[in-house]
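Worked example 2:
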Amino acid sequence: MLYNVDFSKPYWIISCYHVIGITSLFLNSLGIYLLIFQCKKLETFRFYLLTYLSMCFLTDIHMTLLMQLVPLCPFLSAYVVGILSEWFGVSLHYNLIILYSMIALQFEFLLLSFIQKHQAIARILKTHILPKFVFFIFYFICLVTPSIATTGFNLIRVQKEEQFRHIAEFYPEYLSNFQELSHFDYYIKNSMYVLVIAFMLIFLSLICLILTLTIMDIFRLMSVLKLHISAGTFKKHKDAIRSLIVQITTTILCVSPTSLMVVFVVLELRNAQFLISICLVLFTAHSSINIISLFLFFPPFREYASRYIPL
């Protein structure tokens, strides 16, 4: 079966990476500055937000500058043309390990921010306080996540000779195109691949479940907290929670298109490469959209913008 796969360098997606990368550099630098120097009312909680924003920023830099992924879907294959590959010869495989480790840490740091705010409220109300060992377990999981990602991807990768052998057997008409690529990897759909993907889905589902339960309990506790503290202190907690809700909303909106990538690959659509490229561009814009949303809906950022940006 012939697919509509373009093996040439797509300059449009590279240009999008560059524009998004430059925009992300400016917006995230401004966002980090505001969190450090203009959001002191949030006290130490702002450093949890800072950790999450920094990880989002690093992910953007990796995807738009260091990696620059070009998909070859509906094959489980892609190649990279970023600085790491062109200057240092880093393969797609190790670029993906770095990327998925960063994405996992993003979700973990966002979850940690919610848990910390939940516990700050819980300590005031003296209810639903988690034991300290829970936090040690969570920190340990954050530390080992990159190792888990590395192990998982190494299990599903086969040697380059085996990759070419599989292509020659099932897609001989594309063999010459793959042989011309320098920094690509081709993943074979086997039982180990299914096992690793299933583990990743379970891991993400668990994080989403904990996050959902935490958010629900935060709103329940906030309704009680309003009766126990001053209006000014309540506003401080409310602003912090609003910032988290804004960020989880933008995360869902930007990550959702990536779930479509799985559908496009499974269905083996003829134009899957173009559709997945659009999804990748939307995902790389995640942190920029996040900062813009904070300026629109997060009071400390909005107040700063109203002072210095004429409307």
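The first strand starts at residue 69 and ends at 71. The two ends are 55 Å apart (CA to CA).
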